[in-house]
Design a protein that fits this description.
The complex is a heterodimer.
Chain A lengths: L7 H7 E4 L2 E4 L21 E12 L8 E12 L3 E5 L6 H8 L7 E6 L2 E2 L5 H7 E4 L10 H5 L12 H10 L16 H13 L5 E5 L7 H18 L2 E5 L3 H7 L1 E7 L2 E8 L9 H6 L10
Helix pairs in contact in A: 6-7, 7-8
Chain B lengths: L1 E3 L2 E3 L2 H21 L4 H28 L2 H21 L8 H24 L8 H32 L1 H9 L4 H4 L1 H21 L7 H8 L4 H33 L13
Antiparallel strand pairs in B: 1-2
The chains are: A alpha/beta, B mainly alpha.
Chain lengths: 293, 264
């Protein structure tokens, strides 16, 4: 259907600008696009509840204030997963970092296990909701040194057996313990950072494009690792990724952000295995995702 | 040339002859298209004007011999040093003037106080002949080390943001996450002082020692003063850079151990 044959209202919702220009998507006439900030379906036993979250960086000198997030709401239940998608600059990373309070929202609130995150010790919150960054950071020294890089206040068991087990969980053999972190491949480094985060026994894993800097074979291994961890540990996962296989394997719900606003929220499961929203579908490069039973 | 009290008093013409050397460089710059002519001319004029003005002011202050004139000179020198230290920062740090002033004032006051009251034992304590040149040396070095430390801190925080955030994400407090950057900033600021201490007297005769020898003092007296100066500057630069970095790094962290990335 040519764009000029639609009504002005349809055209308004059909255009989703991104940073690189504009991409055009057509909403499925059977699916309505939710209003901004709409609260999504209630989930049982929520781990994260995000309510009308906003974040703006203050004006400085001649630079005006910059709005990063506006009126975003969602919830993620225990053991569930949520994937954040959207063009670059849409606020995905900032939103993820609000969940473990690496960023401070300027409006709304985040609850972790029903408690406002501002009432929790931020350092403890970060151990319970572990963040894995897009670019793996390994500190100087061996993999063992890196795994033992835990806060002094942490009561984590850092025995040799525990380290070996932590590596095994991400598919690395004990021989890696003595390897210099600088000599690992990108995929191995990323798996070590996940292993290090898991040593603190988190309840939730926050993943910021974990496969973005990896080649396809390493990305596939990491997808297997993350998917396996979710099942073995029952972890709640909030991930930013545009990796179709990771989205498919994580299942759960997708939140589509555009310019800091929640444009679409959609869940894929056995009953609704296909993404129906036109904009989201178009954004995901026309891929038609089907959740694996 | 007119020798007076062991010093050859230079006439205006003699000073002018020294400026001929700069004129030669200006000609070379023009011929080689180096584009340094304007800076050299402005720098030459400023050197002459600023130093003559300072000479006149100091001569008046020395003659008056009042503590409040000495204090006023020290305050003006401190304000200029603070402004100069802050102006070298590539990106503004909130509260940068208070931070630089605190670092410079504390490091200068403690070092100057010790040297004047305990080491040299100047009477009266505000004797301008001692206080002003010694304070000037301390302020200048404190200013440079604070600026170097601030610059290095900013660039390290920017370059190593991922490292800091990885530590914060693991549950480390902000102060521990930025400790490597604090250490490297202070070390960078101390490099000139450290290397200067290693080669002092071997590569070049330090300014104060040169001045005293030119003024007719015995080289043995001059080195004693120079040793005091080297120790004094080592302390002042360490304290100034450490204070500046410690105070500045707090501005990049929130009480909730978050890195204010928008400041980088």
């Amino acid at each position: 259907m040519p764009l000029n044959s639609t009504t002005p209202e349809e055209r308004l919702v059909a255009i989703v600008d991104d940073d690189t220009g504009s991409s055009i998507c057509r909403p499925d006439p059977m699916v309505s696009i939710p209003r901004h900030g709409v609260a999504v379906a209630a989930v049982g036993d929520p781990v994260f509840q995000v309510e009308q979250l906003s974040l703006a960086y203050p004006a400085r000198g001649r630079e005006p204030a910059v709005e990063i997030l506006s009126d975003v709401s969602f919830a993620v239940g225990r053991g569930a997963s949520l994937t954040l998608v959207g063009p670059s600059g849409s606020g995905k990373s900032t939103l993820l970092r609000c969940l473990n309070r690496l960023e401070e929202p300027t409006g709304g609130r985040v609850r972790f296990h029903d408690r406002d995150t501002t009432s929790l010790d931020p350092l403890e919150l970060r151990r319970r909701a572990a963040l894995v960054l897009q670019t793996p950071v390994l500190f100087e020294g061996t993999v063992r040194d890196n795994l033992r890089m835990q806060p002094r206040t942490s009561t984590t068991d850092l025995s040799e057996a525990r380290l070996v087990h932590a590596l095994a969980e991400v598919g690395l053999d004990p021989g890696f313990l003595d390897r210099d972190g600088a000599t690992l491949s990108g995929g191995e480094k990323q798996r070590v950072t996940i292993s290090r985060a898991l040593l603190g026994d988190p309840q939730a894993l926050l993943l910021d494009e974990p496969t973005a800097s990896l080649d396809p074979p390493n990305a596939a291994i990491l997808v297997d690792t993350i998917s396996g961890l979710r099942q073995s540990r029952g972890l709640t996962i909030v991930a930013i990724t545009h990796q179709p296989e990771l989205i498919r394997r994580l299942g759960g719900c997708l939140l589509y952000l555009v310019k800091g606003r929640a444009e679409t929220y959609e869940c894929i499961d056995d009953l609704a295995p296909t993404i129906t929203d036109g904009c989201l579908r178009a954004f995901l490069a026309g891929e038609r995702f089907r959740a694996t039973p | 040339m007119m020798p007076t009290a062991g010093v050859i008093d230079l006439s205006v013409w003699q000073v002018g002859l020294a400026a001929v050397l700069v004129g030669v460089v200006i000609v070379i710059s023009a011929r080689q298209a180096l584009g340094l002519e304007r800076d050299l001319v402005v720098g030459t004029v400023r050197t002459i004007v600023q130093l003559y003005l300072v000479g006149l002011i100091l001569a008046s202050v020395f003659t008056a011999g009042r503590w409040y004139w000495v204090a006023l000179v020290l305050i003006v020198m401190t304000l200029v040093a603070t402004q100069a230290a802050v102006s070298r920062l590539k990106k503004p740090i909130p509260g940068r003037y208070e931070i630089a002033a605190t670092a410079i004032v504390v490091s200068t006051a403690m070092t100057l106080g010790w040297v004047i009251a305990v080491v040299v034992r100047v009477h009266p304590w505000y004797e301008p002949q001692y206080v002003i040149p010694i304070a000037g040396m301390i302020l200048g070095n404190a200013m440079t080390s604070a600026a170097l430390a601030g610059d290095r801190l900013q660039s390290d925080l920017r370059a190593r943001t991922n490292e800091i955030e990885a530590m914060l994400a693991l549950g480390f407090p902000g102060s521990e996450a930025v400790q490597p950057m604090v250490r490297s900033a202070v070390r960078a600021a101390m490099i000139p002082t450290g290397s200067g201490m290693m080669t002092v007297g071997l590569v070049q005769l330090p300014g104060m020692m040169t001045g005293q020898i030119l003024a007719g003092a015995s080289p043995l007296v001059a080195i004693e003063y120079q040793i005091v100066v080297v120790f004094m500057l080592a302390v002042a630069t360490s304290v100034a850079s450490l204070l500046f970095v410690r105070l500045a790094v707090r501005r990049y962290l929130t009480p909730a151990h978050q890195l204010r990335r928008y400041l980088l």
